[in-house]
Amino acid sequence: MVTLSDVAKQANVSKMTVSRVINHPEQVTEELRGLVEAAMVELDYHPNSVAQALVNNRTNVVKFVTLEDIDTTEPYYMNLLFGFARGLTKKQYAFQLVTDLNRIEEGRADGYLITGSRTHNYELFDKLKKPFVLFGENHRGYDFVDTDNQLGEKTATEYALSRLYKQIIFIGLDVKEPFEYSREAGYINTLQKNQLIPKIYRVDNHSHAAQKVIQDHFREFKKDTCFICASDRIAIGVVRELEYQGAKIPEDFGVIGFDGVFLDQVSNPKLTTIKQPIFKMGELLASMLLQKIAQSGSPQGELLLEPKLIRRESTR
Amino acid sequence: MVTLSDVAKQANVSKMTVSRVINHPEQVTEELRGLVEAAMVELDYHPNSVAQALVNNRTNVVKFVTLEDIDTTEPYYMNLLFGFARGLTKKQYAFQLVTDLNRIEEGRADGYLITGSRTHNYELFDKLKKPFVLFGENHRGYDFVDTDNQLGEKTATEYALSRLYKQIIFIGLDVKEPFEYSREAGYINTLQKNQLIPKIYRVDNHSHAAQKVIQDHFREFKKDTCFICASDRIAIGVVRELEYQGAKIPEDFGVIGFDGVFLDQVSNPKLTTIKQPIFKMGELLASMLLQKIAQSGSPQGELLLEPKLIRRESTR
DNA sequence: TTGTAAGCGTTATCAC
DNA sequence: GTGATAACGCTTACAA
């Protein structure tokens, strides 16, 4: 293993000069810096991050916390995870996976990314001793990254109108959370701007729950109705039941999902959906968290990313 | 932060005695051990794994490598990942996610878990300088964990026969890999034992590819045929096309998948499938890898786990 | 059986 | 601007 000392010898300087070239290059004369950099390249030197971690009282580890009790096979998270991992690896960070908020402070970590949190979890957050960022919008002042949910459903609703669907119905999630309110607001505002009356059903995030709603109310739905769904899972259930009832998609009925991960492509017909930039969000969450750790916990603010409409086969 | 020295003071012994109680308790008298343990509990002492890592020339980090170029949102991997993570966390290990085999040795890690590897990757493995284990069976002597693929399809085939399906057709994956050969062998051997003639189609692992095969050959399939599929993805395509053709599932046609992660439940009808113990495999892979690291790379052998038949709605 | 000393690779501090 | 020294928390090697 090539160490700082090896480089120092090679460049005929002290260890400290090498260390400075790495951490505070402006404090070193151009001449020595050149020598040191040449030596580092020649020896293929890479700092030992464990030693760095020890002296900086860091662990180079953060935790990815999943609170949502739904099954962790949700493909959604896989994307987030890969994005997050990418962001971490750039800075030589590794992570652990945690699903139990109470055990979050066991072991060692420099900070946490918390996903799937609900309003009732918030009280626990204030007790955390390490910096953390949230995936998912909140109005308590916790740093977060999320999709611009309101813009997403605004886009979906406007698109449905532009395809000349006459009635637009929102199939939302039965949760009292900011992201759901934002999605509904995007829908409601757009309808009202067009002198239309909103109609919202709320269901659990399972295709079968959505299927049931459509079944129960099918007779009330006229031709030229488009369903704006708060998730692709729901959209799949809606599509399934509409087809079961003999309805024609996309000619008579349109369906628009939300998420754009995996499920939208497995479904048949393939879903028109609002695609969240999930990988990107994961990456940004990593940057934000590492930044926050570096700045000993100072606030990082909020980040809303623009989702994209993906036109496919479930709308005309 | 509570350190070894703090515990030593509290217990009136030297740091080394405390260290020994942790790493070689048998070398310490019962009396001192008791004192030290009491002190550790009272102070809520936890070893600093970074310091341990530095002196042991470890990183406490391993890499989870995904070589398969299919999208990483495959829910399958999510389960494996969570199992793996669980296994690691027990030993205070963290991990990084890697998708590029060529960059695997960048950065620092004590070892690798390699998933989704294909035969043509093997030559690269021999060059790796750190211990690694594979997820997926191979006959090159690399340590691995996998499902007992042959047993899985044997179980599926026997079940299809027991449900009195007359013809059993295998829809396999179009890859020349040990796991696929094992699955086909499980099917073929069982058929031959029953004086039946095997019939195999091979497709890419996409529902649409499977759909196409069924479409192309539907007229050749008689009532009372059961399709044994090498993945749930394939099974979903088979189901979809059979229904499209107006065939009755499960009365006239049966479909059995393989994997049992997420997809089997999203599908309609819900799939009868061979469920792999994926989470468990992840956990075992972690143990195996950490074990191998601890034993400086000594062979760990092979582990085939028993899959389970899950009876649901796609077979009668 | 227990303790002392040295060292793992790095950085902060304080001289020069 | 550069270098010597101590320190981070722990373990190995050796001495008592």
What this model shows, in words?
The structure is a homodimer of 316-residue chains. With 316 residues, the first copy, chain A, is an alpha/beta fold. Chain A has three domains: 4-47, no CATH class; 61-146 and 278-306, 3-Layer(aba) Sandwich (Rossmann fold); 149-276, 3-Layer(aba) Sandwich (Rossmann fold), CATH 3.40.50.2300. Chain A is 42% helix and 18% strand. Chain A is built from twelve helices and twelve strands. Chain A has helices spanning 4-11, 15-23, 30-43, 49-56, 75-90, 122-125, 149-162, 178-193, 207-217, 232-244, 263-266, 278-294; strands at 61-66, 94-98, 111-115, 132-135, 144-147, 167-173, 200-203, 225-229, 253-259, 272-275, 302-305, 308-310. In chain A, strands 2-1-3-4-5-11 form a six-stranded parallel β-sheet, with helices on one face. A six-stranded mixed β-sheet of chain A has the order 7-6-8-9-10-12, sandwiched between helices. The radius of gyration of chain A is 25 Å and the shape is elongated. The interface between A and B is large, with 46 and 46 residues. Chain A binds a DNA duplex (16 and 16 nucleotides) through residues 1, 3-5, 13-17, 19-20, 23, 27-29, 32, 47-48, 50-57. Chains A, B: Keywords: DNA-binding, Transcription, Transcription regulation.
